[in-house]
């Protein structure tokens, strides 16, 4: 029996209130799990994978010498805290987001987001996005004004979204929830820029219309980088619905949003050509 595995498993369990809690969340027989802890049995390949996914470690790590494993676990308190309460299937995604926290720092700052309005498709919606980091995750906030600037008043529709940035499969996934009424979610999938300087991010957005029908809909989207710091009041005032020929919509952005899909009519795809979308100097 691998004594390091036994000690490592005991260490991981010590971060939880009880063995009963661990086995309940693992959906694993407690008596069988106690055999693993006592050295009476070693997990099958599938059970070992379940255990590692639950605790946020890799299979090779849980078999490490105990002193080395203790050091690895000590350096991952944030991952344990966030993932321990999640379903096993979601833990790997969150661990990936935490592990790439430093690499995502270059995306922090303010952006104007452009896409054809889901509710008023003849107009382009420009919203303000702020990407920022806490100690563990890369998060973002979005403010939308569903009105044209010349028609704006105190009763203009205002929407606020909060979400998380997840780097998966060499793409940036931005998933958020509308925080005023609480009845909308959206997802934006973006190509990361293949250069150090971030000027624009392009991809696709999927969400629902703000009408009573709440129809699912997708459109191309562009995030135009504004900088680490902006005049927020002025930037929010620049949000809203704009006609396609409005000067507030850069021509390169409009070209991308209107570009014909490079596939058949049943699919919409985001083109990866960054040179077509550049932020103004």
What does this structure look like?
- The chain has 281 residues and is α+β, with helices and mostly antiparallel strands.
- It has ten helices and nine strands.
- A hairpin with a 7-residue loop joins strand 7 (200-208) and strand 8 (216-227).
- The longest helix is centred in the first third of the chain and has 12 residues, at 88-99.
- The model has no long low-confidence stretch (mean pLDDT 83).
Rg estimate, integer Å: 23 Å
Structural class from helices and strands? alpha+beta
Give the SSE order as H and E letters: HHHHHHHHEEEEEEEEHEH
Low-confidence stretches: none
Fraction of helical residues: 25-40%
Number of helices: 10
Shape verdict: elongated
- Characterize the main sheet: 8 strands, antiparallel, barrel
User: How are the strands of the largest sheet arranged?
Assistant: 1-2-3-4-5-6-7-8
Structural domains: how many: 2
Beta content comes to 25-35%
User: How many DSSP E strands?
Assistant: 9
Mean pLDDT: 83
**In CATH's first tier, which class of the largest domain applies?**
Mainly Beta
CATH architecture of the largest domain: Beta Barrel
The third-level CATH topology of the largest domain is: Lipocalin
* Straight-line distance between termini: 64 Å
